[in-house]
Design brief:
By secondary structure, this protein is an alpha/beta fold. The protein folds into 2 domains: 7-153, 2-Layer Sandwich (VC0802-like), CATH 3.30.2130; 175-345, Rossmann fold, CATH 3.40.50. Helices cover 28% and strands 29% of the residues. The strands form 3 sheets. It has an 8-stranded mixed beta sheet. The chain has a 7-stranded mixed beta sheet with strand order 11-10-9-12-13-17-14, with helices on both faces. Strands 15-16 form a two-stranded antiparallel ribbon. Helix 5 crosses helix 6 and helix 8 (278-292) packs across helix 9 (306-314). The longest helix has 15 residues, at 278-292. Bound molecules: S-adenosylmethionine.
Length: 347
């Protein structure tokens, strides 16, 4: 058997390519060798394998990181006859962090077939892992557009998982999108940051963690329960002294001073603000931002109702300086196509 060519593969949300490439460029030793869009699986970038692959785990814009091998012949039968090929990858991932991995799952068509069962037995017996539905070690044997791929994720929770999330809040933002929104705002040069409709505080926490120069981080939301959940997350993130949260309604136009940056993940119907007139809410939001943003400041807004928002922005004193168009599958297997608008006040 030829020595398999190991690679690192990173998955990210379609539309965040520029943000992912920017983040990777901050690591001088990481060089992307190719990229790929797999219609069924999403957007990926690939790197030559490196021994200290755990450094990939600090990337904030990435959903998942894998060690993989690809070859036309790596179908399930071949892997079952050459189990050490997969075993080599699993050993590397478990090395030094085996206490974090207790369970495994093999993602593969025909997972109940004798071929895959024999691979599962091998993993169970060799690595003393338990096979479960929600697993720490996620192994895959998949047919991509052109070839077979075998691999596993390098972390027990996907990279975009953040341990400051104390409870699930329906409508909470994916942290890689929060990272993207913040990264568009030149936060290195900002002192004050306001997050309107702060929800579980994902944007505030991502900003507080990575931009120590931000002196003032303020958020508000009109839902008392959500504000208290957000405080629990902020506490867990160790940012209780840095972030201030208020229970306020945008329609009351709370006077909180002026800010260098405003970010927002707008309510968009469904589980949030079911009975609100969204257009009225968006108009009030843009009007409030006009009054609250410093003249040179930046406003970054994320929404699925982007057509409605765009119309309102175009009639306002803001100009749109950049748009990111995202696409991803929700937990109920529907495609969401939200946008991020970066805006500045017209001179
Ligand atoms: C899409 S969620 C924000 C989610 C947040 N980015 C997160 O990661 O958890 C929108 C939030 O807007 C809040 N909201 C809705 N109407 C509001 C209003 N009139 N004034 C203030 N907050 C409001 C909701 O309570 C909800 O938490």
């Amino acid at each position: 058997m030829n020595k398999p060519k190991l690679e690192i593969k990173l998955a990210f949300i379609t539309g965040l390519r520029e943000v992912v490439f920017n983040e990777i460029s901050q690591y001088p030793n990481l060089h992307i060798v190719r990229e790929k869009r797999e219609p069924l699986y999403g957007d990926f970038v690939y790197f030559n394998f490196v021994e200290d692959f755990t450094k990939f785990a600090s990337l904030r814009s990435v959903l998942r990181a894998y060690i993989i091998v690809q070859d036309l012949k790596y179908n399930p039968r071949y892997i079952s006859n050459h189990k050490s090929l997969l075993g080599g990858i699993v050993s590397m991932i478990l090395e030094g962090q085996d206490t974090k991995f207790k369970t495994f799952k093999i993602f593969c068509a025909g997972a109940d077939s004798p071929t895959i069962r024999s691979i599962a037995e091998y993993i169970k017996n060799t690595y003393k892992l338990i096979e479960t539905e929600e697993a720490d070690l996620k192994i895959h044997i998949i047919k991509t557009e052109k070839t077979w791929e075998v691999g596993a994720e390098i972390t027990p929770r996907q990279l975009s998982f953040r341990n400051y999330k104390t409870k699930h809040m329906s409508g909470a933002m994916d942290p890689t999108i929060a990272y993207a929104v913040n990264s568009l705002c030149d936060l290195e040069y900002a002192a004050s940051y306001l997050n309107i409709f702060s929800g579980s505080a994902t944007l505030l926490i991502e900003a507080g963690r990575y931009y120590p120069n931000l002196k003032q981080l303020v958020g508000f939301d009109n839902n008392k329960k959500i504000v208290s959940l957000a405080y629990q997350n902020i506490k867990k993130a160790g940012l209780i002294r840095k972030i201030q949260l208020k229970e306020k309604d945008i329609f009351d136009e709370p006077d909180l001073g002026k800010f260098d940056v405003i970010t927002s993940d707008l309510p968009f119907g469904m589980s949030i603000s079911k009975n609100e007139d969204l257009e009225k809410l968006y108009r009030c939001f843009i009007g409030y931002c006009q009054k609250t943003l410093n003249p040179q400041g930046r406003l970054a807004v994320y929404t699925s109702k982007h057509e409605m928002l765009k119309k309102i922005i175009l009639k306002s004193r803001f100009k749109i300086v950049k748009t990111l168009e995202l696409k991803f599958l929700t937990s109920v297997n529907a495609y969401l196509r939200p946008k991020i608008f970066l805006c500045r006040l017209k001179k």
